[in-house]
# Entry
Amino acid sequence: MDFIDLKSQQARIRESIERRIQAVLDHGQYIMGPEISDLEGVLSEHLGCKHTIGVSSGTDSLLIALMALGIGPGDEVITVSYTWISTAEVIALLGATPVFVDIEEDTWNMNPELLASAITDRTKAIMPVGIYGQTSNMTEINRIAKEAGDIPVIEDAAQSFGATHHGKRSGGLGTIGSTSFFPSKPLGGYGDGGALFTDDDELAEKMRWIRLHGQEKKHYHPILGLNGRLDSMQAAVVLAKMEIFEEEVGMRQAVAERYSELLGECDLTLPKVAEGNTSVFAQYTLLSENREELQAALGKESIPSVAYYAVPLHLQPVFSNLNYSEGDFPVTEHVAKTGLSLPMSPYVSEEDQEKIAAVIGGL
# Structure
């Protein structure tokens, strides 16, 4: 049993992938070929945003967003500790300080009730993360950011792209939206890649310059940038995947509903989708006080599972200089100690789900 089944998806769109890759081989523009602008157009239409900028990875998308906002030494960026390290890593790489707030007990996303008290005169951005497939409460986060002086909000939608918040698509809910095309993501390529989204013309222009070494036009570099370009091959793959993306979102939701039905009587905390949200279920994650026993029982039946973010960022050695301690973020730490993700993709079969539920129910 695969933890994430990419083979079934590939079988569905193999002809389109091969045709699009062959087109790249034929024109030979392997970097910034026509597939980049094609994908940017498709994604802008999908989100209903003015600008999409394809970039080299989800991590670089966050870095480029911060650079476009002028984030640097002495600045603070508020985010969460329960996430992949990229979210805070890029803040520190620019010399700024990650400031963590705790997460909600039900959605496991940024708790807006704790946000206002974390804002200081050094806060230059807020970066909520759409963990496991649904967005944070972006309505409330945006309201707080606006009242605090129009602080920019960067939406990390690497896991929530395809979800909605009060009818608006994830990725288009902040000043800048960001996503990743890492293969395991709901919209993934066959390597690294990512994209940025914004309605702000000035920020879009800066982000385009930054992804190309700060270049405004050939041989003219008004700002510092990096090598943040998206490969044509990856854009070709993502274009093929976009052909079935909306259908796959529905399939993911159906898989999640079956899990919740099968596991509803077990002594577990199952994922909750907040009112006004839909989830793309990048993962199906539950909480268990007996996680190690549960994971061992699944492994004995060759069922893969993953305990994501088992050491949250505020307890990672690399961020020890921030002087956080165990107990500072109790909800984050509880979810980190008890969270377990089950096999998840649009193609998880009912038979496999019943097998998984039988193992869990037998404990």
Notes: The CA atoms of residues 167 and 307 lie 31 Å apart. Residues 246-361 form a domain with the Aspartate Aminotransferase, domain 1 fold (CATH 3.90.1150.10). The chain has a mean pLDDT of 97. The chain has two domains: 7-100+108-242, 246-361.
